[in-house]
Amino acid sequence: MFGLFKSPSFRDRRLGDLVRSRGHWRGSLVLADGTGVPLALAGTRAEPDAQATAAAAALPAQLQAVDLPFTTEWFSVPPAAPLGQTPKLGTLHPSLVRAVQAAFRAVAG
After folding, report:
1. How big is the CA angle at 69 (ends 40 and 96), to the nearest 5 degrees?
2. For residue 72, what are the CA distances in angstroms to 76, 80, 108?
3. Can you tell me the distance from the alpha carbon of 92 to that of 75, in angstroms, rounded to the nearest whole number?
């Protein structure tokens, strides 16, 4: 009787075990550096969507291609500081948006 309320599970050869919970298939995606990232995929009650699993399986390789070192070289205050004195991780001055978009397009291919 209690098996009736048990969440269904699905075994994917690339992503491992996925469990249906709160309307999504949930699991963990392991990146190239060994970091585990929570994963939620769309799909039917029987199995996750094939396109979603394929896209999730391709993510670690794509994320590795744009990995930047988080060092003081990137986030320290520049000597002249033309765009402000306080570097903030996660913020980008509006004048640099186009350069970052061009770099992302070049990496994405």
Report:
1. 90
2. 5, 16, 26
3. 11
Query: How far is Cα 6 from Cα 14, in angstroms, rounded to an integer?
Result: 24
pTM: 0.53
Query: Tell me, what DSSP letter sits at residue 71?
Result: S
Rg of the chain, C-alpha, whole Å: 20
Residue with token string 């001055």? 93
Query: What residue type is assigned to position 48 of the chain?
Result: P
pLDDT digits (tens, 9 = 90+) for 28-66: 988 877 888 899 999 988 889 999 999 998 888 877 666
CA-to-CA separations, 21 to 7, 37, 55, 58, 97, in angstroms, rounded: 7, 17, 20, 23, 38
Q: Kindly write down the DSSP assignment for every residue of 77-106, as one continuous string.
A: PPSS-TT-S---TT---GGGHHHHHHHHHH
Strand pairing class (16-21; 9-12): antiparallel
What is the enclosing helix (H) or strand (E) of 29?
strand 24-30
